[in-house]
Structure formats: structure tokens, C-alpha cells
Amino acid sequence: MRTVTVTVLYFLRRGGGILKIVLIVVLLFFLLIFSLVGLRFGSALTQEGNPIPYLVAISKHELSNNGYEKVLETTNVIRYVSEYEEKYPLGMAKEFMKGEGWVFKEQMGSGLVFEKNKKVITISTRQYSRHYFIWDIPKEV
Question: CA triplet 114, 119, 120: central angle to 5 degrees?
């Protein structure tokens, strides 16, 4: 904080103007935001390729408190992200499928097996970061 104060005072004495001060404050703000995002997600940012859709979905999730948020849609699956809770791991994926009429049968590794009308599907799950996990649901659901 002392560095920011010294920098601002330097520009004021030098006659740098208010525009330069505003520019410095804005740049420092963005640097702080990027640092916080980096600390929160660490190496998880690039494990799924482009991190932007995941960060946007996580931001929407945090603001809406919906429980889960759609990240992207491919020709075969719809990918969601939700918060990982220690006491109820993978709970949001199970609740989503229950809402669609599927009955949870078992967990096989990172896959969750569901049944509906004698049809069986498996959704895949994986940890995205310490706080979030990703789950892929087949489009046929």
C-alpha cells in the first residue's frame, strides 16, 4: 500500500495529472483481481483447456447460488460445474438427475450410474479445483 501512495504522490508532485493516477489505480485493481483468481484456482485453470467458460460459469454460480451452472455443450454431452461439498460430494449431480426422473444406482470410480425405464446411463465427474467439480451429462437425458 505504501508503494501505491508513493507512486500517487510522485505523479501529483510531477504534475502527472489525475488521468495518470486513475490509470494506475485501475491497473492495480486488475492486477489484484487476476492475482486473486490465480490463488483461488491455481493450476486448475488450464487443465480443461480454455479456462474462460469455466470461470464465467463459476462466477454465475457464485452470484446466483443456483447449485450448479452449465459450462458448455458439445454434440454428445452437457458439462456443468458445481461446488464440491465435503459432507455431500457429488450431491448436485445426483440432485439434478433425480429432478430429471433418474434413479441413482451406484458409483463406479468417477462415474455415477443412473437408471430410468430400464435404461442405464453413466455421467462422468471430476474435480476441477479444491472447491469445484465438473460433471458431464449425456444429451439424451
Answer: 35
Residue 77 lies in domain:
47-138
**Do 72 and 22 belong together in one domain?**
no
Q: Which residue has the cell 488450464?
A: 46
User: pLDDT tens across 32-53, in order?
Assistant: 877 776 666 555 555 666 777 8
Provide the residue count of the chain. Answer: 141
Type of residue found at 65: N
Q: Which residue shows C-alpha cell 454465475?
A: 60
- Residue pair 90/132 in contact (Cβ under 8 Å)? The answer is no
How many other CB atoms are there within 10 angstroms of residue 67's CB atom? 13
8 Å CB contact between 36 and 27: no
